[in-house]
Amino acid sequence: MIVQMVRRFVREEIVPLELSLDPDTDQLPPDESERLKDMVKDMGLYGLGIPPEYGGPELDMVTMTLIAMEMSQHRAGLYAPCYGVFGGAGLAQLFEANEAQKEAYLYPTLRGEKRGFFGLTEPSGGSDPARAIQTKAVRDGDDWVINGGKIFISGADRADYGLVFARTSADKGRGGVTCFIVDTNTPGFHVRRVVHTLRSAHYATELQFEDMRVPHGNVLGEVNKGFAIANDRLSRQRIPYSAGCIGVAIKANELAVEYAQVRETFGAPLASRQSIQWMLVDNEIDIQQARWATLEAANLSDLGEPFRKQAAMAKLIASEGASRVVDRCMQIHGGYGVTKDFPFERWYREMRIRRIGEGPSEVQRHIIARDILGSSLR
Ligand SMILES: Cc1cc2nc3c(=O)[nH]c(=O)nc-3n(C[C@H](O)[C@H](O)[C@H](O)COP(=O)(O)OP(=O)(O)OC[C@H]3O[C@@H](n4cnc5c(N)ncnc54)[C@H](O)[C@@H]3O)c2cc1C
């Protein structure tokens, strides 16, 4: 029932509204945003991503995954599902925070009053951040002094605070990394530039930290154990990340199935050609495989069983499969497929990032290989 409500909302409210918006936007006009938020609140669905212990609804991961597959079924859906009108979920890692930190950062984020960023990747590399992190934090009395920088950090220019991972010991691996909660108005915090990418909304940023003093009370978790916090939650986030890709693939395929039946070439509908039929068949297979893999990972997480390998598989299958689906649907639409009159060109650009963001495909394969061959594998 919830999934159907979300589906109806996306089709009746978001898709028609989107027709009048800039094709590259990731934001609604403020009055529309408020109107839709109120509608979502009336439906009792505001704050879907908030766990029950923080006042959110009691939804399991499988249901959340099915909902995420619906929310992305519109032009901006991959990176701005429903333009955020279902409320923010907060940075997953903050659920590990102590009570004072939750009061200062988590709860205001869940109420939609504050925004955070996740600062892990550095110019020295993002696939293996535990070894690549060069940003240093040195203890000085009650503070830590942080120097270094980050790259590809989404939304840091619009954020009130962020999680910054820095090296705090001589250990060159995951044992020497600490996670700090940093207010963006801290002296020494600089957004050096916006990094333009294939994404429509260009809000990846490069950050620089110059003698930035952060109180010891802002250490998230324990000193030198910050990487475990990042890692555990990254695995969990791969499930909704995969679901977003699947939703876009479902919508793209739906449009292609309709179009193939009405568009005629050489005196017959495209759908009568076997080469087109096979594209639609391959779409169906890619979508089904991704759905099964993602729901399997979600189900294991609900059962409290290990799901790291399954989440990596889901991310790999969904991001690669959905990329193929969008590409085929664009081909079926011919010239129209590459215009901004249709959503394919935006999905095509943004879907390319999904094979790199949240761990590139090769890193997912590395995680799966480690699971098969044992953690001694480097
Ligand atoms: C638009 C965008 C938004 C992002 N947002 C954030 C954010 O908010 N916060 C954040 O911390 N990071 C963010 N990232 C960073 C992202 O997570 C990294 O780009 C990603 O982890 C890869 O790191 P890298 O770019 O340094 O590539 P590298 O680590 O240099 O790897 C380069 C390539 O080598 C390949 N490779 C890597 N390891 C292996 C291996 N073991 N075997 C074979 N091949 C391998 C992969 O193809 C990889 O793409 C974002 C990136 C983009 C593009």
Keywords, please?
binds flavin-adenine dinucleotide; Butyryl-CoA Dehydrogenase, subunit A, domain 3; 3 domains; 16% strand; alpha+beta; globular; four-stranded antiparallel beta sheet; Butyryl-CoA Dehydrogenase, subunit A, domain 2; 378 residues
Can you walk me through this structure?
- The chain has 378 residues and is α+β, with helices and mostly antiparallel strands.
- It has three domains: 2-90, no CATH class; 116-220, Butyryl-CoA Dehydrogenase, subunit A, domain 2, CATH 2.40.110.10; 228-373, Butyryl-CoA Dehydrogenase, subunit A, domain 3 (Up-down Bundle).
- Helix content is 47%, strand content 16%.
- A four-stranded mixed beta sheet has the order 1-4-5-8.
- Strand 9 (264-265) and strand 10 form a beta hairpin.
- The protein is globular, with a radius of gyration of 22 Å.
- The model has no long low-confidence stretch (mean pLDDT 94).
- Flavin-adenine dinucleotide binds at residues 118-121, 125-127, 152-154, 197, 199, 204, 353, 356-357, 359-360, 362-363, 366.
Record the SSE blueprint:
Layout (H helix, E strand, L loop, with lengths): L1 H17 L11 H13 L18 H11 L27 H12 L5 E4 L9 H4 L3 E5 L2 E12 L6 E7 L9 E7 L5 E7 L8 E12 L3 E2 L5 H37 L1 E2 L2 E2 L4 H30 L4 H25 L1 H4 L6 H11 L6 H13 L5
Parallel strand pairs: 1-4
Antiparallel strand pairs: 2-3, 3-7, 4-5, 5-8, 6-7, 9-10
The structure holds flavin-adenine dinucleotide (FAD).
